[in-house]
Design brief:
The structure is a single chain. By secondary structure, the protein is of the alpha+beta class. It has two helices and eight strands, in the order βββββααβββ. The chain binds zinc ion (ZN) (2 copies). One zinc ion (ZN) binds next to α1.
């Protein structure tokens, strides 16, 4: 560690941010595994410029099943979104088999055919149609 004496106690250069700080304020950073200045230790200084391998990597996501791709990811997200959606998005249309759907995404309301399952997406925002159950229709 490079140290210079400025006449007011020994200052040392922080390898992370390059600033000189009083040497006695340096602390061992658990992520960087080296002595850093107080600013870096408390996270006030960004770690830009630090080599990636010096920063502990974030825990990786659990591995996806084989054959998993972006589309599966999207479908999974849509499926989960639909599961989370509660009822109350549909209402009857008098004298018609169609129902009115209130898009949970953009609040646009459009006619939905629960038998043909059309349209398959909100015509306004292209968001997924909420899961239709006859018992949900208000
Ligand atoms: Zn620093
Ligand atoms: Zn919409």
């Amino acid at each position: 560690m490079a140290a210079i004496n400025l006449g007011q106690g020994v200052k040392a250069q922080c390898k992370v941010c390059g600033n000189f700080s009083p040497a006695d304020q340096f602390k061992l950073h658990f992520q960087l595994k080296q002595m850093v200045c107080q600013g870096c230790y408390s996270g006030k200084t960004s770690f830009k410029g630090v080599k990636n391998d010096e920063v502990k990597k974030e825990p990786e996501e659990p591995p996806k099943p084989a054959g998993w791709d972006k589309e599966d990811d999207y479908l999974d997200r849509v499926a989960r979104m639909r599961k989370e959606q509660s009822s109350g998005y549909f209402s009857r249309v008098a004298g018609s088999d169609l129902v009115k759907c209130n898009c949970p995404n953009c609040k646009y309301s459009y006619k939905y055919d629960p038998f043909k399952r059309m349209p398959q997406a909100c015509p306004y925002c292209n968001g997924p149609v909420p899961r239709y159950r006859a018992s949900d229709v208000a």
